[in-house]
């Protein structure tokens, strides 16, 4: 991604930089200052994250051993736990000032943590250490300062069932909105309870608003923010993107059950061959292939507005990293952050995680071995990571509010303009 695209994205999102879905594990309780030291000057860094359990056994510890070899006197103690069990812990740690020195972060928590003073200003730490942030794909900022760096990114491209496309007379994945609607209508016309697109809009798990609705705006270079504030109304990019979703709904090409459907439900619909197209995480490629080895599917960029020729935003979720404000060892903690963001280490981590790197120069191994991942990596390099909910206050609640208004619109109870106006009012009260 070019520096211009990166800076445009940061300014468009204002306080959002680079996907959602992941939460942090906080350090064990105790004194506000965490980490350990000894009389001989050695330092122990606590690193709380959910990453180690999701990687091959021993892989993450091996990276930490390399860091320790390169930084004598610094030891890394991994505090690892599954995603689902860390939510309450990290909230408690942020409130009590007992976070570990280094923490895995979800962008949805960054704004609240920064305002609480729970996480450190990484812009200042990078400047103190002379770290060149130009090598970073993206940064999550609040009030102009970086508080989270996305270490690896899990992108959300378009998945297409190539057999269904062929039956509908479509010889390639759609690249524009018009092509997408034509393909969706053609697939739906095949009958046998087959639909062109799948749209999860569950209010219980509202990330469909992020990944499946607002992604149409980002794919054409649009933004839902203006100077860091909500801009759902008076915004042609948002209005046209959401209206396009409504048009697909009115055309009858969306699989039934959207209002209660969650992400895992749409993956099942696609895997079972009941829908022709979906926007989904690259992390599900292996799951789909294992569940239905005979399914012939492709990955492509999310279609853009007709006539759009700029770089396309692609939704993503990240493993982000930050430093605790209460840490007594911020300089050493920053060394660990920089190690993980170095070209070689970041390439290794992205390879074992089947994710895309946070360093602009890193290339994961799997792009040479897997055609689908190679295609997705090209999409990633040609565009820019786009998830403006990252870094926003009460991000999940914002998704839920817009989702609720969108449901009313799709149900015929209000227009798209009225839905956006109602959501705009709700969002403004949260900022």
TrEMBL record:
Keyword field contains Cell membrane: yes
Keyword Lipoprotein on entry: yes
Check the record and name the Pfam families matching this protein: SBP_bac_1
Signal peptide (UniProt feature, chain positions): 1-25
Q: Which InterPro entries match?
A: Bact_solute-bd_prot1, SBP
Keyword tags: Cell membrane, Lipoprotein, Membrane, Palmitate, Signal
Its recorded name reads Sugar ABC transporter substrate-binding protein
């Amino acid at each position: 991604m070019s520096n211009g695209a990166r800076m445009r994205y940061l300014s468009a999102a204002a306080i959002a930089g680079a996907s959602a879905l992941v939460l942090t594990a906080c350090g064990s309780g105790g004194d506000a200052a965490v980490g350990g030291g000894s009389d001989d000057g050695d330092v122990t860094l606590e690193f709380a994250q959910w990453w180690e359990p999701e990687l091959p056994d021993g892989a993450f510890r091996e990276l930490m051993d390399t860091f320790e070899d390169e930084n004598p006197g610094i030891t890394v103690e991994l505090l690892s736990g599954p995603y689902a069990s860390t939510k309450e812990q990290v909230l408690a740690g942020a409130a009590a000032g007992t976070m570990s020195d280094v923490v895995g972060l979800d962008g949805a928590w960054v704004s609240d943590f920064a305002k609480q003073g729970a996480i450190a200003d990484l812009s200042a730490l990078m400047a103190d250490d002379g770290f060149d942030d130009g090598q970073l794909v993206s940064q999550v900022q609040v009030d102009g300062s970086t508080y989270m760096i996305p270490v690896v990114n899990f992108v959300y491209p378009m998945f297409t069932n190539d057999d269904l496309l062929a039956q509908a007379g479509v010889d390639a994945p759609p690249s524009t909105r018009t092509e997408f609607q034509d393909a969706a209508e053609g697939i739906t016309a095949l009958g046998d309870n087959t639909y062109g697109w799948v749209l999860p809009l569950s209010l219980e798990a509202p990330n469909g608003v992020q990944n499946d609705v607002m992604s149409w705006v980002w794919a054409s270079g649009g933004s839902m923010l203006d100077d860091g504030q909500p801009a759902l109304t008076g915004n042609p990019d948002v209005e046209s993107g959401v209206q396009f979703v409504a048009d697909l709904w009115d055309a009858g090409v969306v699989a039934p059950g959207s209002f209660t459907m969650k992400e895992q439900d749409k993956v099942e619909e696609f895997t079972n061959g009941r829908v022709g197209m979906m926007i989904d995480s690259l992390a599900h490629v292996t799951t789909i292939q294992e569940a239905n080895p005979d399914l012939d599917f492709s990955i492509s960029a999310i279609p853009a507005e007709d006539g759009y020729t700029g770089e396309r935003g692609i939704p993503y979720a990240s493993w982000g990293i930050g430093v605790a404000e209460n840490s007594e060892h911020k300089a050493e903690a920053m060394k660990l952050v920089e190690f993980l963001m170095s070209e070689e280490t970041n390439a290794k981590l992205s390879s074992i995680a089947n994710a895309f790197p946070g360093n602009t120069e890193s290339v994961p191994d799997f792009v040479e071995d897997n055609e689908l991942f190679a295609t997705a990596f090209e999409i990633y390099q040609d565009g820019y990571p786009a998830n403006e909910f990252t870094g926003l206050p009460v991000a999940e609640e914002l998704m839920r509010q817009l989702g609720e208004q969108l449901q009313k619109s799709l149900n015929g109870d209000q227009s798209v303009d009225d839905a956006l106006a109602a959501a705009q009012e709700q969002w403004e009260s949260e900022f």
